[in-house]
């Protein structure tokens, strides 16, 4: 019983196939039933218990047949959807029992025809959709009994439907919308919609219509939207739209129109959107748009339009045929035509214009002045892919300041027009100089506020080296234009950055200078100075008198010639750069030097790679150079012909007798003073001097080691691991303290103070000992204190510049790569012997401090090559050590950092 209150039931997309006849027995109050997207077979009496049903959705169910009377009890049904099924035949009997039906959708079935009276009982029908079927024809009078019909859709018929009956949709006074799209209609009769006075929207898109009868719309005075796009229309008769005065949107795109006559749109004074794109329009009458002054959007893109100039007499400057649409026009699309002019009405009169698309046309050039008068706010003008090769910025700043005022505040809302320039063949020479400076913000800020050029994807065209370069990245100093007026066999360029004329005579075989320099008279581009490059030629002499206009040359490159003599009398005193590099100049005489002195603005003088004489004859020249060092380029590279650096001091070139006397006197005086100072210092700091001399291995005959170490308490401090103490106590100590030469040793267990801080004791032991003996063993490498003792001794030796450390190799320590980095570095730079070596005690005693009476008979010690540590053995000759010999200084070349290797063999 609870189902009786249900009014809406949704069973869509449930893969239902069969429904029992009494399925809705208990749902008699249902008004809305959705059964779409199933696979149903409907029993004849399925709806007998749903008399209140208002909406029935049966779409997409693969229904191929509906039995007449299936809707018998649905007298209140207003919407019936049968779309997306496989219905082939329908009869009047199917709809007899739904007299109140208003909306019927039978699109996307397999219908090929309909009986003329199939809808005769649907007197209240308002909307019908017959799209996407297989109709070959439709009967006349199909909707004769449907006076309330408002919308008819016959779109995308699957096969050609070349025609429809005369008056097929005529005299339907409630009809507002017709859509017959993509049915390949070839023709429509004049009375097709006659008498259908309420029609508002008509779509006949994507058919094969070539024209329409003149009186086709005579009764359709309320039409607001007509879509005739994608047909084959070649022409439309004047007066076709005479009665459609309320029309707002007219779409004629993608047809074959070639001409727009004077009266074709003469009645459309309420038209707002007109699309004529993708036709073949060449000719438009000057009065075509005279009455369409409410147009907001016009699309004439992709046509063959060359000229839009109105032929009204006395119009200056020229205006376009769209001038009468200026008041309300917001978007004008003219891309892909052959237009070569921007008309003044687009700039001055169209104050509401926001889009002006002129891309892909033939606009040849552009001036800032032509755009500065734009009255529209936020206008985007697309000029991409035209023929614009330059942009003229004459009086740009004056125009911008006039429009905004000098002190007006500028913000983004003040931008009058944004101009898109990408894809234009801009030639990057002097003609683009102002545009490059514009992108580099070299103009007053008001200039960009009036016209903002968009340089995105704007690349240089042409054949020069700048081709393909993004314009906004160009350096304006590099922009030049070739000039025709030029000396024979040279090339001339104008450079606007500094108003210079560049005369390029590089490597042209000249044996003398050109007869003249170009004149500045009768030229469109006036230059301030000339830069002459005549390098890599065969010039030998620069004459004293030159031809006309050489006085305008401020830079001249004479490098890589054979010039021997220089005369610059005919050049301007404003000369700033003179390059004489790589010539045959040996001397610059007084006359040439005086000429150079007159060039008060000279900034760069290049004289390198010449065979200059550096004798007394060069006195004036070298003296002159010494006074203008800042102007001489690469002065330090100037050399004499002998290859020596050119001397700047004239006295070094040509000294006098008085110079010699002065030099000798100065040397003697300074020498005496130094001797006195040295004697005084030695007397006062005798000991310190000896220490310094010994540390730096200087005058070792003057210094003895005993003098430096006479205050030290011990001969050696023994550094070892506690685990090697037996070796030290039983072998090493007795051999040194009780041998032929008795040494005083510092030992941990005997000489250290119990309880004192260990690092302090290490430092003190190293400081008070003449040597440090390191017993290097595997145990030592594991000892933290042992490594600390080695570092202390090594650091002291480095600071004194003396050999203080003696290394005894005791046992196998393995590969040196695994050693402490500091110890590894030390072993790689020094030598050592092993325990068990027959010369062990001799080598050890030799490395220790010797008594002063030892003087000779020292066995020779040679350092082996620095390979593996097993090879680093001291090779001692068979000479017997004479204990009466004197020990040399510890850092002498003979005993440089001896390391004694005591590895057991």
Question: How does this model look, in words?
Answer:
- The chain contains 18 helices and 38 strands.
- By secondary structure, it is an alpha/beta fold.
- It folds into five domains: 159 residues, Ribonuclease Inhibitor (Leucine-rich repeat, LRR (right-handed beta-alpha superhelix), Alpha-Beta Horseshoe); 88 residues, no CATH class; 173 residues, Leucine-rich repeat, LRR (right-handed beta-alpha superhelix) (Alpha-Beta Horseshoe); 38 residues; 192 residues, Toll/interleukin-1 receptor homology (TIR) domain (Rossmann fold).
- The protein has an 18-stranded parallel β-sheet. Strands 25-26-27-28-29-30-31-32 form an eight-stranded mixed β-sheet, with no helix packed on it.
- Helix 6 links the parallel strand 30 and strand 31.
Structure in a nutshell:
It is a single-pass type I membrane protein. The chain is α/β, with parallel strands linked by helices and 905 residues long.
Describe the structure using short key phrases.
LRR_dom_sf, eight-stranded mixed beta sheet, 18-stranded parallel beta sheet, alpha/beta, 905 residues, Leucine-rich repeat, LRR (right-handed beta-alpha superhelix), 5 domains, membrane, flat, 18 helices, Cys-rich_flank_reg_C
């Amino acid at each position: 019983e609870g189902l009786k209150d249900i009014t809406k039931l949704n069973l869509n997309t449930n893969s239902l196939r069969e429904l029992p006849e009494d399925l809705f027995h208990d749902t008699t109050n249902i008004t809305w039933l959705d059964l779409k997207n199933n696979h149903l077979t409907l029993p004849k009496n399925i709806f007998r218990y749903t008399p209140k049903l208002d909406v029935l959705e049966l779409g997409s169910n693969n229904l191929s047949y509906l039995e007449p009377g299936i809707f018998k009890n649905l007298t209140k049904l207003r919407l019936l959807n049968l779309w997306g099924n496989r219905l082939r035949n329908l009869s009047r009997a199917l709809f007899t029992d739904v007299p109140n039906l208003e909306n019927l959708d039978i699109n996307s079935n397999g219908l090929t025809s309909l009986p003329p009276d199939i809808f005769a009982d649907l007197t209240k029908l308002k909307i019908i959709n017959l799209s996407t079927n297989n109709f070959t024809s439709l009967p006349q009078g199909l909707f004769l009994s449907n006076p309330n019909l408002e919308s008819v859709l016959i779109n995308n018929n699957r096969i050609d439907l070349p025609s429809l009956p005369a008056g097929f949709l005529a005299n339907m006074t409630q009809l507002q919308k017709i859509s017959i799209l993509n049915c390949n209609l070839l023709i429509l009769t004049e009375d097709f919609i006659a008498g259908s006075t309420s029609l508002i929207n008509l779509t006949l898109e994507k058919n094969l219509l070539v024209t329409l009868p003149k009186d086709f719309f005579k009764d359709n005075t309320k039409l607001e939207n007509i879509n005739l796009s994608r047909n084959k229309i070649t022409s439309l008769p004047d007066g076709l739209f005479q009665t459609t005065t309320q029309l707002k949107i007219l779409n004629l795109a993608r047809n074959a129109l070639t001409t727009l006559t004077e009266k074709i749109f003469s009645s459309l004074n309420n038209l707002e959107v007109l699309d004529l794109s993708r036709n073949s329009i060449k000719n438009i009458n000057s009065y075509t748009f005279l009455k369409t002054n409410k147009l907001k959007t016009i699309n004439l893109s992709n046509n063959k339009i060359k000229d839009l100039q109105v032929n009204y007499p006395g119009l200056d400057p020229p205006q376009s045929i769209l001038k009468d649409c200026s008041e309300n026009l917001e978007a004008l699309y003219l891309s892909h035509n052959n237009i070569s002019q921007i008309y003044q009405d687009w700039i001055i009169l169209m104050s509401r214009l926001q889009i002006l698309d002129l891309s892909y046309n033939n606009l040849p050039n552009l001036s800032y002045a032509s755009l500065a008068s734009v009255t529209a706010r936020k206008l985007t003008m697309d000029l991409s892919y035209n023929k614009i090769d330059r942009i003229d910025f004459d009086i740009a700043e004056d125009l911008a300041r006039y429009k905004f005022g000098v002190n007006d505040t500028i913000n983004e809302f003040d931008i009058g027009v944004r101009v898109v320039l990408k894809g234009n063949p801009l030639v990057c020479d002097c003609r683009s100089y102002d545009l490059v400076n514009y992108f580099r913000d070299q103009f007053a800020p008001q200039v960009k506020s009036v016209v903002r050029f968009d340089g995105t994807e704007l690349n240089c065209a042409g054949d020069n080296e700048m081709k393909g370069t993004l314009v906004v990245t160009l350096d304006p100093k590099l922009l030049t234009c070739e000039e025709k007026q030029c000396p024979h066999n040279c090339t001339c360029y104008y450079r606007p950055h500094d108003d210079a004329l560049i005369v390029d005579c590089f490597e042209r075989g000249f044996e003398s200078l050109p007869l003249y320099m170009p004149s500045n008279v009768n030229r469109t581009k006036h230059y301030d100075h000339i830069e002459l490059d005549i390098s890599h030629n065969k010039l030998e002499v620069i004459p004293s008198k030159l031809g006309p206009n050489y006085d305008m040359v401020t830079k001249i490159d004479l490098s890589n010639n054979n010039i021997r003599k220089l005369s610059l009398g005919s050049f301007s005193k404003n000369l700033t750069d003179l390059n004489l590099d790589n010539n045959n100049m040996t001397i610059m005489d007084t006359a040439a030097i005086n000429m150079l002195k007159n060039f008060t603005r000279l900034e760069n003088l290049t004289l390198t790679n010449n065979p200059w004489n550096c004798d007394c004859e060069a006195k004036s020249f070298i003296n002159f150079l010494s006074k203008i060092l800042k102007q001489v380029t690469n002065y330090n590279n100037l050399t004499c012909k002998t290859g020596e650096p050119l001397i700047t001091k004239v006295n070094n070139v040509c000294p006098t007798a008085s110079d010699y006397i002065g030099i000798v006197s100065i040397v003697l005086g300074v020498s005496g003073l130094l001797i006195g100072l040295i004697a005084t210092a030695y007397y006062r700091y005798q000991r310190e001097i000896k220490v310094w001399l010994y540390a730096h291995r200087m005058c070792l005959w003057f210094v003895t080691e005993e003098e430096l170490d006479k205050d030290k308490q011990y001969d050696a401090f023994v550094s070892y691991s506690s685990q090697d103490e037996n070796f030290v106590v039983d072998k090493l100590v007795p051999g040194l303290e009780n041998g032929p030469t008795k040494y005083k040793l510092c030992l941990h267990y005997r000489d250290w103070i119990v309880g004192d801080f260990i690092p302090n004791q290490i430092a003190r032991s190293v400081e008070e000992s003449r040597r440090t003996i390191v017993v290097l063993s595997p145990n030592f490498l594991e000892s933290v204190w042992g490594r600390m003792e080695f570092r202390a001794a090594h650091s002291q030796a480095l600071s004194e510049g003396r050999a203080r450390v003696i290394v005894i190799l005791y046992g196998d320590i393995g590969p040196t790569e695994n050693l402490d980095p500091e110890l590894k570095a030390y072993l790689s730079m020094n030598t050592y012997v092993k325990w068990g070596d027959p010369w062990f005690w001799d080598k050890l005693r030799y490395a220790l401090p010797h008594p002063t009476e030892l003087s000779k008979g020292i066995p020779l010690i040679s350092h082996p090559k620095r390979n593996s540590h097993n090879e680093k053995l001291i090779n001692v000759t068979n000479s017997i050590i004479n204990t009466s010999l004197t020990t040399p200084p510890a850092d002498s070349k003979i005993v440089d950092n001896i390391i004694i290797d005591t590895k057991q063999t």
